[in-house]
Design a protein that fits this description.
four-stranded antiparallel sheet, two-stranded antiparallel ribbon, 251 residues, flat, 9 helices, 3 domains, Chitinase A, domain 3
Length: 251
């Protein structure tokens, strides 16, 4: 990004990069509000105002104020503590061999369930379900149109779309029908405790063993967290032994 000076306060320059850094420091909702031309103008004004406060603070020698010095000491101590912890955690390394070994030893944890993506139309009577099915099969109406106009399920607002789900999530009669259909099939009526369903299967994915590449990132995060905890705990024990004579816990 090319650096552009947006404002100058004395010798201090505020640039477009300062604005971008300010946006990054905000939470996503605030960043979205300020990431407009008007929002960036407000951020620039705020940065200018902060610099004005800084100039006055320097003029009044607030940096020599005892309360300020105490606050800076506290901040420095906290930053040094966190820096020391981060340095210990950053020393932890993870190899591809460790990831592969964990995968081989825990393959049963990485089995993908069989899933399906489906739409449905839910009505109260078998007669209406059959009537709609005939109209869909004869192309008088699309499945999605029928769902919007006749389904009693809230999914009607999404053309009857139920999204993707694994075995075991739906009621047995509905699930049995879905997982015995092929992609693109429209079948029904299927009776459940909720009424009569017409079902359209959008996609099917067979379950099975996940390959290492599919779960490598997940394993790496888990192992790194575990190893960092172990290193952190070990370091704590070392520090307690090293500074044992300085630690006094009051009852």
């Amino acid at each position: 990004m090319e650096r552009t000076v947006l404002a100058t306060i004395g010798e201090k320059e505020i640039t477009n990069i300062d604005i971008e850094n300010a946006l990054k420091s905000l939470d996503p909702y605030q960043a979205m509000q300020f990431n407009t031309e008007e929002g960036k103008k407000r951020l620039l004004e705020d940065l200018v105002n902060q610099e004005l406060f800084y100039l006055e603070a320097k003029d009044e020698n607030l940096h020599n104020d005892e309360n300020f010095k105490a606050e800076m000491k506290r901040i420095e101590e906290n930053m040094l503590k966190q820096y020391s912890i981060n340095k210990v955690l950053a020393s932890v390394k993870l190899t591809d061999e460790e990831i592969a070994n964990f995968y081989e030893a825990n393959k049963t944890k990485f089995v993908k369930p069989e899933t399906a993506s489906a739409k449905h139309i839910l009505v109260d009577t078998e007669e209406l379900a059959n009537d709609l099915l005939n109209k869909i099969n004869s192309n008088e109406i699309s499945f999605e149109e029928a769902a919007r106009e006749h389904s009693s399920c809230p999914s009607k607002d999404a053309d009857g779309d139920l999204g993707t789900f694994p075995r075991g999530q739906m009621v047995p009669e509905f699930e049995e029908a879905v997982f015995n259909m092929n992609r693109g099939d429209v079948q029904g009526p299927v009776k459940t405790q909720f009424g009569y369903h017409l079902i359209k299967v959008e996609d099917r994915h067979e379950g099975g063993q996940s390959e290492l590449d599919e779960v490598k990132e997940e394993i790496a995060k888990s192992l790194m967290y575990q190893k960092q905890n172990e290193v952190y705990s070990s370091k704590i024990n070392d520090l307690k032994a090293k500074y044992n004579n300085l630690v006094k816990l009051n009852d």
